[in-house]
């Protein structure tokens, strides 16, 4: 399957089975003997062989998808509540164990069910031998209060409490907050507990806050203390979706974007809770940064920030009000001569001057092959 030659395989086999080792007992080396299998601890070949073997699992799953035994946009994920697919996936994992000699510890894994699949989560749990994982927002809030009350903040300086906040108390809820749009009341409670611990450190005594909490959460180079802002976790998903490639990016692009840019995509009623949550912060995310132009295929000409630090619709509102295609991409506009822009009225007076000025600026813009990049602004307003 991997295409390695027979001579290469014989080299690896000889290396694995042909080692001579000696055991040292009481500072005395015994006689050497030949091992039957296995590599020495720390051998640089070990991780390579492990990756080659594990990569076979992805190949087996991909072939099962081709044969129709498992389905889904990304075949490593079992889709919906198809029990037959779940059985096939379990069989594939069992065969991989037998072929590779690597045991999968199902009891160390957890299974998450969404939508209609939640009706069958007990079946899936018994089938795979995994625990059922939940998303307890309210339990999370109670745990934060308990964690904060257990720390003896009065024994710590401001610097010490800042270290506790960043290294422990802020990191505990990060996974949950970066995966779901947490109810506003839960988020406000968590922020209240964090702020109270930092400024007050005692549940029975009051102390004045010396500065607003949003300023405390800003980066140090911007005058803050670098406390992690829990409200922006979902925006990081959008940043990675725009700029990185991976299995989950492939899943979201195929399922939700479907060839469109992030700017052109809106949430729908039938979308998952996670995607609705992410789309709910899309406009805020786009306002926190700007696009670095490469090909122009992912950037809206009028509505996104790519030319200077303001969208063209805000720089030239008079032109935007009468343009026909308000959602055109930069590539659609610039890849034709003259520019592919149509207005509902003739351009005269100030509008003509604005358009002439904009066209002069656009002559300096060059499109290239590649993917547009989203970058954060250096300074973010409160």
UniProtKB/TrEMBL annotation:
PROSITE patterns: RT_POL (PS50878). It comes from the Eukaryota. Residues 1-156 form the Reverse transcriptase domain. InterPro entries: DNA/RNA_pol_sf, RT_dom. This is Reverse transcriptase domain-containing protein. It comes from Paspalum notatum var. saurae. The lineage of its organism: Eukaryota, Viridiplantae, Streptophyta, Embryophyta, Tracheophyta.
